[in-house]
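Today's session is about reading a structure prediction critically. Students often jump straight to the picture, but the first step is always the sequence itself: look for stretches that repeat, for charged clusters, for runs of hydrophobic residues. Only then move on to the predicted structure, which in these notes is written as discrete structure tokens rather than atom positions. Here is the chain we will use throughout the hour.
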Amino acid sequence: MPHKAINQLGDLERAVMDAIWSAVDAGHPSVSVREVHEAIVARRRIAYTTVMTVMGRLADAGLLTQERSGRAYRYAPASSREALTAATMREQLQGMAGEDRRAAMLHFLDDATADEIADLKVALAQVEARHAGTGSGAPGRGAGASR
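Below is the predicted structure for this chain, in token form.
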């Protein structure tokens, strides 16, 4: 599990992670600092060494994996953008009492669009189907409950 939440990333860290996630989405399992630098420098002026430092720090924080390839390193995300976002959301809800957790989720959902509510219903149906299929029977287990 990553040690740094997605909402704790600075602008440059987010740009680096976005470049790496985009490379993975394009079918590249890992990337070099040079590849990330080339992707970022197209949108903003930044030194190669700065990108290298940021990627090293992201690896230290558990957001990237680092593997030596010749004289350089190749990096891959430790988890998907969606998994990191979900972990951040769980972290925010963790430790809240049941009523408080439900109230926070309701406040969050108050501003949801009809499409977002429809997406949530589909997602809940998928989770319920997985739980029914595995026999884990997780009714009543709310977000942030122990696993």
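Discussion point for the tutorial: The beta strands are 31-32, 64-69, 72-77.
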